[in-house]
Specification:
Pyruvate Kinase, Chain: A, domain 1; 5 strands; about 10% strand; elongated
C-alpha cells in the first residue's frame, strides 16, 4: 500500500492537472463560440456562390474550364489533408489522419497538401518527405485558402495531379465530428447543375455580360478558394468542440481519481494511527508486566 505522503503528492498533482483541464475547457468553450459565429457569417456567401454556380452551369452551353474537365489520365490524385495544429482533443486529429491514410493505402502515388501541423507530421511519419503545408491557425485563413487553392490549381492544370480531394472534419454537432473525404475537382456537371426548378416566376431574370461562360470561368477558382476557407472554419469549430468534450471528460476523471485517492489516503492515515496506538499500548503493557 502507498504511504500517506505518496498519496498526498498524487492528489496534489491531480489537482494541478484538473486546474489545467478546467482552464482549457473554458478556453475551448469561448473559442468554439467564435468559430461557430465565423461559420455562420460565411454561410450566406457560400450559399449564394453555390446557387450562382449551379445556375451558370445549368444555363451555359459550353464550359471551357479545367475544373469542369477530367484531369490528366494516369496522374496521381492530389489530397488536401486538413487537421488542427494542436492536440489534446481526443481522437479528432487521428480520425481525420486515419481516413487519409486509408485512401493513401489504396492509392500509393497520392500527392498530399497539408493544412495543420498534425497533418504535416502525419505525412512525414508515412515517409513521404516534406510536402507543401500551411498552418491552420494562420493570421488570415482567407489568405491561406487563397495560397492553397493557387497551389493545387497550378498542379492540376499542369497535369501533375489528376483530381483534387479534400479530407477534413465535418462538424455534425458538439458531440460528433466526422472525418469526410470529398472530391472538389473535377466538378461533375450533372451534380452541380441539379438545381430544383422554381415553383413560380421566370428563370434567367439576371442578364450576364459578357456571357455566362466567361463569368463561370472567373467564378470557379473562387469556388475552390471559398470551399477550402469554409473547410478551415469547420475544422476550427470541430477541433474546439472535440477539445471541449475531451477536457470536460479529463476534468471529471481527475475528480473521480482525486476522490478515490482521498479515500485511500484516509484509510492509510487511519491505519498508520491505529498501528501507532497499538504500539503504544503494547509498549505500556510490556512495561506494566515487568
Amino acid at each position: 500500500m502507498a504511504s500517506v505522503k505518496d498519496l498526498r503528492g498524487r492528489i496534489r498533482s491531480l489537482k494541478n492537472t484538473q486546474q489545467i483541464t478546467k482552464a482549457m475547457k473554458q478556453v475551448a468553450a469561448a473559442k468554439i463560440r467564435r468559430a461557430e459565429a465565423a461559420q455562420k457569417q460565411a454561410r450566406p456567401y457560400a450559399d449564394a456562390l453555390g446557387e450562382m454556380l449551379q445556375d451558370l452551369i445549368a444555363t451555359s452551353s459550353r464550359i471551357d474550364h479545367p475544373f469542369m474537365n477530367s484531369g490528366k489520365a494516369g496522374a496521381p490524385p492530389g489530397v488536401i489533408l486538413m487537421t488542427a495544429d494542436k492536440g489534446l482533443a481526443g481522437a479528432f486529429n487521428s480520425n481525420v489522419v486515419r481516413e487519409a491514410e486509408r485512401y493513401w493505402r489504396q492509392h500509393s502515388d497520392t500527392r498530399f497538401y497539408t493544412v495543420g501541423i498534425k497533418a504535416r507530421n502525419a505525412v512525414r511519419r508515412w515517409g513521404l518527405g516534406d510536402r507543401p503545408g500551411w498552418p491552420l491557425n494562420a493570421p488570415s485563413k482567407l489568405q491561406t485558402a487563397d495560397e492553397l487553392a493557387q497551389a493545387v490549381t497550378a498542379d492540376f492544370t499542369a497535369g501533375e495531379i489528376g483530381e483534387i480531394i479534400l479530407v477534413s472534419s465535418k462538424h455534425v454537432s458538439m458531440m460528433v465530428q466526422r472525418p469526410e473525404l470529398r472530391q472538389l475537382v473535377p466538378i461533375e456537371r450533372e451534380t452541380a447543375a441539379a438545381v430544383p426548378a422554381p415553383s413560380s416566376g421566370p428563370r434567367g431574370a439576371v442578364e450576364i455580360e459578357p456571357s455566362p461562360e466567361f463569368v463561370l470561368s472567373k467564378l470557379l477558382p473562387k469556388y475552390l478558394e471559398f470551399t477550402l476557407f469554409s473547410a478551415m472554419l469547420e475544422t476550427d469549430a470541430s477541433f474546439y468542440a472535440a477539445q471541449l468534450l475531451a477536457m470536460n471528460n479529463a476534468t471529471e476523471n481527475a475528480g473521480k481519481l482525486i476522490d478515490e485517492l482521498t479515500i485511500a489516503m484516509n484509510n492509510a492515515r487511519q491505519a498508520a494511527i491505529t498501528k501507532e496506538l497499538l504500539e503504544i499500548v503494547s509498549g505500556a503493557e510490556a512495561l506494566t508486566g515487568t
